């Protein structure tokens, strides 16, 4: 990566879905060899999926100044509010692939009913609250949006107006609504593939 950066083809480099130990090792190797270490990790992060961001990377934020470019703030669309009645034809969860990726999909949909009540009190949509919740994490340098339409993009961008409303009290209510319990970060499926090649 140093070569790419030294050529001016990139300013920085980062990782995507790496385990905390792998990122720490990459930083240590870079420091030892006088190279540029990764400055950002790209993890999945949303109200339902958060152990790695909130617990797994804690030491890395401080020790290496690691930033995050998070993705899936709407939990593959579950937090968009579009799954409250039926699964729309052509949506992600109308395919077997996503149903296998998120086996507790239906349980998550039920939990969005309580989340919607909180969003209503804040004066925003469920999607806007979910994005604002992600942005409110000081370790999230960037929150990537996956809007399919201009209307969805406009709605998601409006979330910035609600970040200040995501107070510790609101976060506690969100945690209660989804029955959040601290979990040990699970190993990503791609981690074993990466380990074979490093």
UniProtKB/TrEMBL annotation:
Keyword DNA repair: no
InterPro entries in the cross-refs: K_chnl_volt-dep_bsu_KCNAB-rel (IPR005399), NAD(P)_OxRdtase_dom_sf (IPR036812), NADP_OxRdtase_dom (IPR023210)
Superkingdom to which the source organism belongs: Eukaryota
Protein species of origin: Phytophthora nicotianae (strain INRA-310) (Phytophthora parasitica)
Residue ranges of domain NADP-dependent oxidoreductase in the record: 6-177
Name the UniProt record assigns to this protein: NADP-dependent oxidoreductase domain-containing protein
Keywords: NADP, Oxidoreductase
GO function term, MF aspect, one: oxidoreductase activity
Residues making up the signal peptide according to the UniProt record: none
Family: Belongs to the shaker potassium channel beta subunit family.
Pfam families, per database record: Aldo_ket_red
Keyword Oxidoreductase on entry: yes
